[in-house]
Design goal:
By secondary structure, this protein is an alpha/beta fold. It has a single domain, classed as 3-Layer(aba) Sandwich (Rossmann fold). The protein contains 7 helices and 5 strands. It has a 5-stranded parallel β-sheet, with helices on both faces. α2 runs antiparallel to α3. The longest helix is centred in the middle third of the chain and has 21 residues.
Length: about 160
């Protein structure tokens, strides 16, 4: 059975993200499996704080006034992010598969780890001030529940979450 690296991301992986992930095991060829949630149900206040901290004023305003993504649009966006991330692995000379999860990706992670063969989980997100501070982010929750190593990277950087 091939060792699998689960990669949970909230956006299309950048070339630098893939380079960092592949660089974790440069002399090996693990299988990469990208998971992207079709996120339609993020808590309002943390989302607005994150958007404002990143200078995304329009997104913060839209969300504060009740403009949440519908399920169809969220799945379409997630499918594009999966395809782009798998393509980024291919551009780096690595094969990857991908899939969309529900709003909360932890059940999909649990299922994948329970299925066997998962060596580790790499979570790639933007900084989320509230969730990261109070350890309610995906990586912290995965560390508590799963019995595999979990690494949290901030998208587009080499910073650890």
């Amino acid at each position: 059975m091939t060792d699998t690296i689960l990669v949970l991301t909230e956006d299309t992986l950048a070339e630098s993200d893939v380079r960092h992930i592949v660089g974790l095991h440069p002399d090996e060829s693990p299988a990469y499996r990208v998971l992207v949630p079709a996120d339609t149900d993020r808590p309002l206040i943390p989302w607005i704080i994150d958007a404002l901290s990143l200078g995304e004023l329009r997104e913060a305003w839209d969300r504060a006034t009740g403009h949440e993504p519908n399920r169809t649009r969220a799945r379409q966006t997630a499918a594009e992010q999966v395809a782009g991330s798998v393509a980024a692995f291919a551009a780096a000379g690595r094969e990857a598969t991908g899939e969309i999860t529900g709003d909360d990706p932890l059940p999909a992670l649990r299922s994948a780890v329970a299925g066997g063969g998962v060596r580790e989980v790499v979570v790639v997100t933007y900084p989320h001030m509230v969730e990261d501070t109070f350890h309610t982010d995906w990586a912290s929750r995965a560390r508590e529940e799963l019995h595999v190593p979990v690494l949290h990277l901030y998208s587009g950087t080499s910073e650890l979450g």
